[in-house]
Amino acid sequence: MKKINKIIAYAQKQLAQEKTGHDFEHAKRTAFLTEQIIKEDKLQVDDFIVTASAYLHDVIDDKVTVNPEKKIRELQLFLKEIGCSIEKIDAILSIIQNLSFSSEMFTQTKPLSLEGKIVQDADRLEALGAGGILRAAYFSGAHGQAIYDKNKPSLYFRNKKEYRQPTTMINHMYEKLFLLPDLMNTTYGKKEGMRRKKFMQDFLQEFYEEW
């Protein structure tokens, strides 16, 4: 069994009970989008690191696990056991620990490699468009957040603690999702990100009329 297949199986097991939109299907779509980015932008990268990072990027995320440090240690051990080199392990962990929106805004310790920038763009594309709307609603519902509150304006966050405060599903679009296209690293990411953002803006026009 190839290493990448073992990694995919590991991610599927780790994310099997995930109920906030960061599940294994999201990981699969993220991996597919990395392929699109590499193809469209004609990039030369380490495909193993990109694919592995795409499948594993939420396994250690604090939105998914209550103990990220423990999950990091478990993942390191797993990657070592299946025969990944120290260099590959370090590259994967560096990506998945630094690609999130909150990491880039508040806590990033290392700049992303090209492979990391590709995974980051793919993950951010997943937060946009029709799928992004549904995932935002799914996440908000899982955390007991309101869909919309006209008396609760969207905010600008100065630190991760503020970013993690409860919000509404609609505010989340303004507070994070609509910022993503301008933060994309790749040509395909920027173009597709803007297309998906436009869809979401059109959706909001209809939403406000109905509300």
Automatic annotation (TrEMBL):
Highest taxon of source: Bacteria
InterPro entries xref list: HD/PDEase_dom, HD_domain
Ranges for domain HD: 23-128
Transmembrane segments: none
The protein, known as: HD domain-containing protein
Organism: Tetragenococcus solitarius
Lineage of origin: Bacteria, Bacillati, Bacillota, Bacilli, Lactobacillales
